[in-house]
Structures are given as structure tokens and as C-alpha cells.
Amino acid sequence: MTAWFPLRYDTTTKVVSGAFCVIMLAVAWMVHAVAVGAIAIVIVLLGYAWSPRGYLVSDDAVVVKRLIGDVKIPLAESLAAKARNALRARAERAAEAEAGKALRQFCATHVCSNGP
User: pLDDT tens digits, residue range 66-94?
Assistant: First the structure.
């Protein structure tokens, strides 16, 4: 089973991209450098080409659809990473608990006792 989730640019993204182009073209006009305007246009176009257009979720992977090359993320790898992080967190909690137990035992035998 696969599910398609399309994405659209929000108003903020459109406004910021447009403002960036206008500012860079104004700078290019003021300094009489066509290269500055061309660079601004290339930056916006590359950003658009690499931005996600949607997500395709299947049983074994998530595919991020872009104009320039899709990215496939296998779910097995992401689940393995999640399991690895859970084990690491469990080991850290166990180590903290063991350290606390050792400290309590030390205090009970050496600090809190009335001496030999």
C-alpha cells in the first residue's frame, strides 16, 4: 500500500523568495553587475528544484519527491536507528541508577555509620 502526500509552498515561503529576488535584482541594478542578478536567480531556482514536492509512503520506504532526484529512506534503517536510540537511553538510565545505588551504599557504610 502506498500513500501520496503532496506539498505546497505557504505564503511566507513565496513572499520571502520573491523579496529575495527583488532585493538581489535591485542590488545588481545599483552596482551594474548582471552576475549578481544571475546568481540570485540561480539560487532561487536551485532551492526550488531541491525542495520537496511531496512524500510517497509505502510499506518499506518513504520517498521524498523532488524535481532534482528523489530521496528514498528505507523504513528498516529508520526503525533500526530508533531501536538503537532506545537501547542507548535504557543503558544510560541503568548506568545512572547503578551510580546512585553505589553512592547510597558508600554513604551508608562510610559516612552515615558511627564508625568502627
Answer: 999 999 988 777 666 677 777 777 878 87
Domain spans of the chain, in order of start = 1-69, 75-116
Whole-structure pTM value: 0.54
- CB distance 44 to 21 below 8 Å: yes
Q: At what angle do helices 34-50 and 11-31 cross, to 10 degrees?
A: 160
Which residues, 6 or more positions from 1, have their beta carbon under 8 angstroms from its beta carbon? 58, 59
- Alpha helices (H) along 1-116: 11-31, 34-50, 75-106
- How far from 16 is each of 68, 70, 82, CA to CA, in Å? 22, 25, 35
